[in-house]
Design brief:
By secondary structure, the chain is an alpha+beta fold. The chain has three helices and eight strands. The chain has helices spanning 3-18, 29-32, 154-163, and strands at 39-47, 51-61, 68-73, 87-93, 104-107, 119-128, 131-139, 150-153. Strands 1-2-3-5-6-4 form a six-stranded mixed barrel. Strand 1 (39-47) and strand 2 (51-61) form a beta hairpin. The radius of gyration is 20 Å and the shape is globular.
């Protein structure tokens, strides 16, 4: 094969396989809970270019000994957190394989590397027609098998947090480690 044919062949292969490669889908809320040792509802009391402080208004899981937690942003894009007093449902992400949550927070989850993320995820709470929903996340809980993921109400999120336990012994593939 001459150089031109090899080049064309390589380009064709690149475009053929690059059209197949896509980002992994977002985790559903219930898929994040096995790595969530702590969950709380909080509101922003302060945010700067470097960090954000959240006042804890209700603990849903775990033991939080402080009234306010301060986090640095996980990424530049997380600085777009809403204004003061905005309510959020916040969950930790960590385990015995990747480590405990660090003091960093993301607005919603990241598509790449979520399984190994060790930090906190903030889901804004929004009211729609009198119902409180978590923004930037969906669920299959309560859905029929062929249905698409649905918006997650705060009420359903509370139920899922109670029903799905924290599993610190998950390894990188999501399988529990044997002791």
């Amino acid at each position: 094969m001459d150089h031109v044919s090899r080049g064309i062949f390589a380009i064709v292969l690149f475009f053929q396989f690059s059209s197949v490669v896509r980002a992994s889908p977002d985790y559903l809320f219930e898929g994040l809970l096995p790595r969530a040792e702590t969950a709380f509802i909080g509101r922003i009391t302060r945010h700067t270019e470097q960090d954000v402080s959240l006042e804890i208004t209700e603990t849903l899981r775990g033991d939080i000994r402080q009234n306010t937690l301060t986090f640095r942003y996980s990424a530049y894009d997380d600085r777009r957190l809403p204004e003061l007093d905005t309510p959020f449902l916040v969950i930790s992400q960590g385990d015995n394989y990747f480590g405990k949550p660090q003091s960093r927070i993301s607005l919603g989850q990241y598509v790449k590397g979520q399984a190994g993320y060790c930090g906190w995820i903030a889901f804004p709470l929004r009211v729609d027609r009198g119902v409180l929903y978590l923004d930037l996340i969906s669920t299959l809980a309560g859905q029929e098998p062929a249905e698409n993921p649905a918006r997650l109400t705060l009420s359903k999120a509370r139920t899922l947090i109670q029903r799905i336990p924290y599993k610190p012994d998950l390894n990188g593939s999501g399988v529990e480690q044997l002791n």
